[in-house]
Amino acid sequence: MGSLRTLSKRGSLKKAFDYIESLRFGAEMGIASGFGTVTSIMEENKFVLQLTGSSSQSLWIGDAIYSRIACLSSVKIDVQYAHPHDHALTAYLWILYKTNKELSRRAASVILTSDNLFWSRILARHIIYGTALLIGA
Predict the structure, then answer these.
(1) For the CA atoms of 7, 11, 86, 50, what is the dihedral angle to 10 degrees?
(2) Most buried residue, 8, 79, 89, 127, by CB count within 10 Å?
(3) Contact assessment for residue 104 and residue 96, using Cβ atoms and an 8 Å cutoff
């Protein structure tokens, strides 16, 4: 219940979103060479853990995460480069996947409409089509 109280204030939720969407988090996730590393990074990150705990206890937090996915997925990007929000989208989708299967399927569908995604597309395909997550490395 502590994580729900922590994130129930809008400022705390914004702080978690700001961190997950930051260059620092992107750099942490950028070292991943396999989905196992990606999940390890997410499962050790305090903001991802707070959002996961809070989302499992409160529908409005899951809805807020879904809204971030919809917003970040719709950002116009230069298709010559990787999507700048791939790491944040991966974390947000992972949180929903762990806490709300129905909402994660809806979010995965949104992600699959975006270009130049890597980790989030792998997770989205797993959620929708049941493709394997290659956990190694």
Answers:
(1) -20
(2) 89
(3) yes
Let me know: does 39 contact 79? Beta carbons within 8 Å.
no
Mean pLDDT value of segment 102-129: 96
Phi and psi, residue 26, nearest 5° = -60, -40
The band of 137, judged by pLDDT with boundaries at 50, 70 and 90, is very low
The residues spanned by each domain of the chain are: 2-129
One-letter-per-residue 3-state SS of the chain: CHHHHHHCCHHHHHHHHHHHCCHHHHHHHHCCCCHHHHHHHHHHCHHHHHHHHHHHHCHHHHHHHHHHHHHHHCCCCCCCCCCCCHHHHHHHHHHHHHHCHHHHHHHHHHHCCCCCCCHHHHHHHHHHHCCCCCCCC
Q: What is the pLDDT of residues 5-17, one digit of tens each?
A: 445 556 789 999 9
